[in-house]
What does this fold into?
Amino acid sequence: MCSTTRAIPGTGRTASRCCGWASQVIGAGLDAQAYQGRYYSSGGQPSGVLSTEADLGGYVKDKAGKPTDVTRKDAPRREWDRIHSGPDNAYRVAILDHGLTYTPCPPPWRTPSSWRTMTSR
It folds into this structure.
């Protein structure tokens, strides 16, 4: 067992035991793996923003006119995910109505820190 105090590079912290250091390294690896899994599970496509000038406050109403537990913001997101998420739905044509516009976000691998994370495997 190692009992020396060691500085953790770039954090300003110290690890007093090897187990603490190893725990942090393993945790960082698991976080990177989870991030990569989320990225590739959506077909590796960058996400975007759906926007509208309409008020999306409140809840969706059912056919009887009673409010449901689905917010008006979640309804378009759920429908978009249902139609466009996953590798089988990549590059489908999106038809937007009700004043919706889609703005793609830059791929996450364009930032240096994300590039390092994506290429760490």
Q: What stands out?
A: The first helix runs from residue 18 to 41. The longest strand covers residues 67-71. The radius of gyration is 22 Å.
